[in-house]
Design brief:
Mean pLDDT of chain B: 89
Number of domains of chain B: 2
Strand order of the largest sheet of chain A: 6-7-8-3-9-10
Order of helices and strands of chain A: EEEHEEHEHHHEHEHEE
CATH class of chain A: Alpha Beta
Structural class of chain B: alpha+beta
Structural class of chain A: alpha/beta
Oligomer: heterodimer
Largest sheet of chain B: 6 strands, mixed, barrel
Helix content of chain A: 25-40%
Low-confidence stretches of chain B: none
Number of strands of chain A: 10
CATH superfamily of chain A: P-loop containing nucleotide triphosphate hydrolases
Mean pLDDT of chain A: 92
Strand content of chain B: 15-25%
Distance between the termini of chain A: 16 Å
Number of helices of chain A: 7
Strand content of chain A: 25-35%
Shape of chain A: globular
Number of strands of chain B: 12
Order of helices and strands of chain B: HHEHEEEEHEEEHEHEHHHHEEH
Bound molecules: adenosine-5'-diphosphate, magnesium ion
CATH architecture of chain A: 3-Layer(aba) Sandwich
Largest interface: A-B, 35 and 28 residues
Amino acid sequence: MTNLIETRDLCRTFGSEETKVTALDHVSINIEQGEFTAIIGPSGSGKTTLLHLIGGLDEPNSGSVTLSGSNIADMSGNQLSDFRRDHIGFIFQAYNLIPVLSAEENIEYIMLLQGISAAERKKRVKEMLELVELDGLGDRRPSHLSGGQQQRVAVARAMASKPDIILADEPTANLDSKTGISLLDVMRDLNQKRKMTFVFSTHDEKIMDRATRLIYLRDGKVERDERK
Amino acid sequence: MLTFQIAFRNILRQKRRSLLTGLSMTGGYVLFVFGFSLLEGSYGNIIDIFTLDSTGHIQIHQDDYRDRPKIYKTIQNQEQIKVALTDNPEIKSFTPRVFSPALAYAGDKTAPSRIIGIDPVLEPTVSRLVQKVAKGTYFSTSPNPDGYYEAMIGRGLHIRLKLDVGDELVLISSGADGSIANDIFVVSAIIGNKTSFDRMAVYLPLVAAQEFLSLGDDVHEYALLVNDKDANETIARGLSAQLSELTVAPWQEVEATFYRTMQADKQGNYFSMGLITFIVFIGVLNTVLMSVLERTREFGVLRAIGSRPMQLVRLISLETFILAFISVMVGFLLILPFVYWFAEVGMLMPEPIDMGGIEFQHLKGEMSARVFWIPMAFILGTAVLISIPPGFRAARILPKEAMGSH
Ligand SMILES: Nc1ncnc2c1ncn2[C@@H]1O[C@H](COP(=O)(O)OP(=O)(O)O)[C@@H](O)[C@H]1O
Ligand SMILES: [Mg+2]
């Protein structure tokens, strides 16, 4: 197995001198291709910060993030935008679909950014909707979908660009536990059938059970790291 | 185009706000077009009054006759010039003229005057002289049964010399050959009013004037009208090259002072119209900025999933452009009938208005492509320009704004 993500001595602090908060404190982890990783920890333990740094949405104070062999810290501007577009899929806690676009169009948009042909886009949209079991709901706007359905569209959107890895920050936090578990099952399915690598954060016990790898964070440090 | 759809649907999303912004742009456009049309129409009106009174669109002289008129600075070779002017499809009509100062006598009264020799048939194709006949009848080329040629005199002479239609008038001047010229003419008409430029003029039939001044076949001036009066400067340049031994000048040069005053006046008016439109756009800027700030998270998402900052700038510009375009189109349909009516019928003002020293009372608009498209280009251009700062604001939104629970 190859290392897809490698973080080395990641440190991230917020604020200055007196109000300084250390969100991440020398975090070094490796995540391999095909893993289904949960980052676990109480609120304020640094989960979001870690996902930001891995996804190139934020810059560390020190340390490095290597994704598929490229050092994200070395990139900037458009390079980083393009890298996110082509290599990383995101799922957000609050779904964050584009409200004026239908489910299909939300999935299509990222492929448009990638310059994928119309025919290929259509084909993949259909395929993705089937994968997340939403066939037939493609023409609905987000406001006409339930939370669970919206989050599945978000999963489909993340998958559509064929990224190396999908990062999800508390993807089930806004869902009731039954819907949350079924979303996790969809993700797990994609992980197994499509060999998609997932890293998601959670503090929900039932969700953790589905993971194959558990990284426990506390006060910005890795407390425990176990594979099942 | 998905970007186009996003932009378009974002406009529909905040219906009331888009409506208000759109209406303010429609209002700006309508005002701009209407003001522009009336302004151009009025100037067109003034230019017509000015050029059709006597100047014409283009004048031809020998050498510097215009600045230093001397009786011997004449245009010869009439046939050659007439052929050149007749063959030019851009020239609508032309008329030859001769001029000379003269002393006018009637009974025991005398007054300095100016002879203007005109072709009675060609002159009405260029100027409104016929319409300016206030009393009597427009003259003909042939002498009357007693052998006297007819003359038409300005209102000023009519008053100074107590001279009326049917009376005899004696003119004394010097001929081109140095001889003393004097002859008797019969007044056939009184021309214009006390403020007309020709209030002290004596109009004579061209042949009579040429004979009186011993000019032979020569003339001092050709005044001409062109079909496309906006192109008169270009046409004048072409003619100048063709008639290289003569001096050809568009009316803008002939009446340079008037033209400069008018241009300055015009620029002032354009500036105020531009300013009004710009003020409208301060409101538009505010709306666009507000809508960007409200959508911070959305832009964060777009950035997170890989949109480049410039793509967001383009999206905002496109949204503003689409709204401006719709507004302008609505404005176009609204204002079209008004502009048409003002151009075709116009309005009679209760008081005459003074523009560039010329009074006129009939307010008319201009109906032309530029009256619509210049304000259109201005509004659309300003809309795009105004959307750039909010666009950059959106582009600066950090992708991590997309995360978190709020
Ligand atoms: N933008 C920020 N400014 C200041 N402090 C922050 C910021 N983001 C996170 N933090 C702090 O960093 C720590 C880790 O936060 P976070 O990564 O959001 O934790 P989690 O996602 O596990 O709840 C917290 O103490 C939080 O208050
Ligand atoms: Mg968090």
